[in-house]
Amino acid sequence: MITIARIDERLIHGQVGYAWSVVYKSDAIMVIDNEISKDKFQISLLQMACPAGVKCFVCDEDKAVEMLNKYAKKKIFVVVKHPGTLLHIYEKGVKLEKINVGGLYFKEGRRQLSKTVYVDPEMEEIFRKLNSYGVALENRTTPTDTEEDLMKLM
To answer: Which segments cross the bilayer (predicted)?
Structure first.
């Protein structure tokens, strides 16, 4: 079961590893990224950033679908860089009830929705599609922040 699906371009860092994983107790953190899953150095850095006692998986989108189905009874914290990753796994059959959007940072062509969320038109379309499937989208930087409906911010 997915304990939380979070979009954060920094992937596993102090806040994800220690604040979010404390609130959303999980057996594993799964980073889903097609490029990073091929980079042994990046994988080792992410594994080192994972809290002690929590398994760390780094996989591409297709492998993630396979693993999330295989380990459906395990508590898994999913973190991705881009909303398109979550749309892809959702459309491949992975159930997502809610997505936390917490770290999409400023880049040229993005507009600001909150202090840590900047989106481009492609991301907005992906969020609308996920929302049309019934997936709740919430904006919070930390677990103690008040949840904001991302769709109302767009």
So the answer is: none
Cα separation, 67 vs 83, whole angstroms: 19
pLDDT 10s digit of each residue in the chain, 154 long? 999 999 999 998 767 767 787 788 899 999 999 999 999 999 999 999 888 888 999 999 999 999 999 999 999 999 999 999 999 999 999 999 999 998 999 999 999 999 999 999 999 999 999 999 999 999 998 999 999 999 999 9
Owning domain of residue 108: 2-153
Selecting among 10, 13, 63, 82, the annotated active-site residue is 13
Active site residue 88: no
Residue 145 to residue 100: CA distance in whole angstroms = 12
Number of domains observed in the structure of the chain: 1
